[in-house]
Amino acid sequence: MAPNAIAVVGVGCKFPGADSHPRNTEKTVYHGNYLDDLESFDNRFFKKSGREAASMDPQQRLLFEVSYQALESSGFFGPREPDLDVGCFIGVCASDYNDNVASHSSNAFSALGTLRAFVPGRVSHFFGLSGPSVALDTACSSSAVAIDAACEAILHGDCKSAIAGGVSVFTSPFFYQNLAAASFLSPTGASKSFDASADGYCRGEGVGLVVLKRLSQAVADGDTVLGTILATSVRQSSNKVPITVPYSPSQTVLYRKLLSTAGIAAEDVTYVEAHGTGTPVGDPTL
Asked: By C-alpha distance, which of 169, 159, 171, 170 is closest to 89?
């Protein structure tokens, strides 16, 4: 042992990135239902350079692909000249990819790739659609509210048809941490809806779109009708409960209004999607 060696017998520090980091990183792995092959994207097919594609939120990339699929199945690329009076209403809640883009030097595509307005905007621009192009954020109900907005736009004459739905892709741990800190997420895995062991929900990625038009127009155009929407409506809860808690009286009024507008009885309904399930707060209310 060197006779003049100095031993370090204690340590203390205070600098950015050490114990002063504002984010607790003890929990870094979360349960979820994730899409495969998220990084794959045919940028040349969609006329984007590799540099631009790298700055695009994966939500934008996936929406390009699924929008093409939806339009193709609707006959948009069929033998007749497409009617471009098409709206685009997309529910998109988070913008996780900001964290990724902010970790690199900014470029001409940084803003276009992360602003939520460009999620539907890019779709409308690429396909040359002239109807309204709107991003809607009402948290978990964004996709359903987007479909309601699309139906209203068609009935109001703002567009003849519309692409509507939602997209959600997780590319940052920060929103996971926020939800976990508020006790929304299940620490044990999958959602256990209407179960005594319900302890939160499990997040899931996905993209879902429908192409809508008036039924009479679809029949006149010779389209294959995959389903019909009899009525849509949106209602906000009261302030009698916390903002994240379902309010049964408000939901009851909405449901009865929809039944009346659609002209059907409650016993005619065979499937109901209930939001907020798998949580100790949502299950008892629903």
From this structure: 159
Superfamily of domain 28-170+205-229: Thiolase/Chalcone synthase (3.40.47.10)
CB neighbour burial string for 59-94, b if at least 16 within 10 angstroms, e if fewer: bbbbbbebbbebbeebbbeeeeebbeebbbbbbbbb
Q: What is the pTM of this model?
A: 0.87
Asked whether the beta carbons of 232 and 151 are under 8 A apart, the reply is: yes
Instruction: Give the residue among 175, 227, 222, 204 at the shortest CA–CA distance from 278.
Output: 204
Q: Where are the domains of the chain?
A: 28-170+205-229
**Phi/psi of residue 91, each to 5°?**
-80, 120
44-79 pLDDT, tens digit per residue, is 999 999 999 999 999 999 999 999 999 999 999 988
What pLDDT, in 10s, does the model give residues 157-183?
A: 999 999 999 999 999 888 888 898 888
- C-beta atoms surrounding 282 within 10 Å: 21
* Separation in Å, CA 195 to CA 30, 272, 278, 280, 285: 21, 17, 7, 9, 13
User: Which pairs with CB-CB distance under 8 Å and at least 24 residues apart come from 179-186?
Assistant: 179/203, 180/27, 180/30, 182/244, 184/244, 184/279, 185/30, 185/31, 186/31, 186/278
H-only helix segments in the chain: 50-54, 58-73, 97-101, 110-114, 118-127, 142-156, 174-181, 215-221, 248-262, 282-285
Mean pLDDT of 184-194: 88
Q: Are 274 and 286 in contact (CB under 8 A)?
A: yes
Q: Six-digit token pair at 149?
A: 């907005």
DSSP state of 83: P
Coil, strand or helix at 168: strand
Torsion of CA 150, 151, 152, 153, to 10 degrees: 50
